[in-house]
Amino acid sequence: MPNFRLLVEYDGTDFEGWQIQPGPARTVQGALAAALEHITGVSVTVTGAGRTDAGVHAEGQVANARIATRLAPVDLQRALNAVLPRDVAVREVAWVPDAFDARRHARSKRYVYRLWTGASRSPLRERRSLWVRSSLDLEAMREAGRALVGTHDFTSFRGAGSAVCGSVRTLLRLEIRGQLGGEVLLDFEGTGFLRHMVRNLVGTLLEVGRGRRAPAAMPALLAALDRSQAGPTAPARGLTLIHVHCDFPLESGGLEPERVDGGEPLG
Amino acid sequence: MPNFRLLVEYDGTDFEGWQIQPGPARTVQGALAAALEHITGVSVTVTGAGRTDAGVHAEGQVANARIATRLAPVDLQRALNAVLPRDVAVREVAWVPDAFDARRHARSKRYVYRLWTGASRSPLRERRSLWVRSSLDLEAMREAGRALVGTHDFTSFRGAGSAVCGSVRTLLRLEIRGQLGGEVLLDFEGTGFLRHMVRNLVGTLLEVGRGRRAPAAMPALLAALDRSQAGPTAPARGLTLIHVHCDFPLESGGLEPERVDGGEPLG
Known about the structure:
The structure is a homodimer. By secondary structure, the first copy, chain A, is α+β, with helices and mostly antiparallel strands. Chain A is 21% helix and 27% strand. Chain A has five helices and ten strands, in the order βαββαβββαβββααβ. In chain A, strands 1, 2, 3, 4, 5, 6, 7, 8, 9 and 10 form a ten-stranded mixed sheet that branches. In chain A, α1 crosses α2 and α3 crosses α4. The relative contact order of chain A is 0.19. The C terminus of chain A is likely disordered. Chains A and B meet through β4 of A and β4 of B.
């Protein structure tokens, strides 16, 4: 039964997160499994690299599924995108070796959190950004960010209800970019993230940006190993999973030379 | 009764256009009037510079309303944004002279139509863009566009059901920009637009981009004065009203030095 790698984009607003739940919850994993079952006639298990929370978006979620189909990747992609609801689509499908597992082979993930710092709320940015009324000291946020990059026990930024499986993670990179017009992007890359970790980091960095917390206090906050000392959890809607790097042969392609989403589409 | 100028942003997806309609239709003008009535306790007439269609968005719609309130513009703005639904907001409020009328004093409007030319549909662009599967010849589209700029009788691009009030308009500018990653923006500026004119121009330019219509055929198409010879009406969701230029003293400000939405919000 061929193993397929899926590159998945979704607008998380109307999903109750990635993971299938008991009951009628609308989830991305559930939508993909239902579409694959509709196409193949058999039940399919979809494994995702990361379990995004309700309201979190993805440009580049990675999943894999072993699917009893003779469809080539490009045809499976077309069939999927015809059947999937409008707020989820598959950007790329590729054959991968049977041993490939999106969750086990995910080596790093990149998340971007979007802020809108205009003078009034912005309906056109409403689904993708958090509106921050106060002006932000981006330099102070960057200084705080530098103390967070590296390998740390991130217990202070760990959401309640996490499964117990260690709390040491490596934050590889944290860039804070102010865009022309009032958008601010917080760009995180790490080997793995605890539950709500990115949103808790954002909530804490926002306190720094507003001058309510000193950048120099970050090492002590990490050392405290105490969630109650960090800032609040920023809302889900500002967060997007941009990219998952999988450490497996042929990371971004497949076993076939065919690339579904390659090249420059413009003439 | 002071006259206020409103700069309005909305996500048009869930509105049945700008203009109040009989019956329960959800309209932007209706939402603004209801919010103003809620705040002031009296019925208010809101005049918009342009009547955007159902599904069309705005970053910079301009409206005015004579409102029986002693609230200063900045306070009226805060009250409005607290009461308005999430998909509409007022970016700026200013006092304007009593004679100011958003519709009569609108001298030019800028619309942008967004295309997404990636290999598969994009859920995160779904509300704002039209997905175009085929690759587009942007140079051919630009050549066609150059023939459309200027003062012409645009009857060939006029939607059915227009009120009879002349069909000569001046298209001041038409820029077609391919963005990195596969987005294409069609940027129109004109002194006025007939009903569906921008969307009919886009539908026709898409035929040119796909090689189904020659750029050199544009002058004859304009001269035909025949809607049936032009391309189809492109869907509303790709269209955004970006800016309205009003020719009146103190165009972008008000009578007071106070600017509600000015300056650089970043620290």
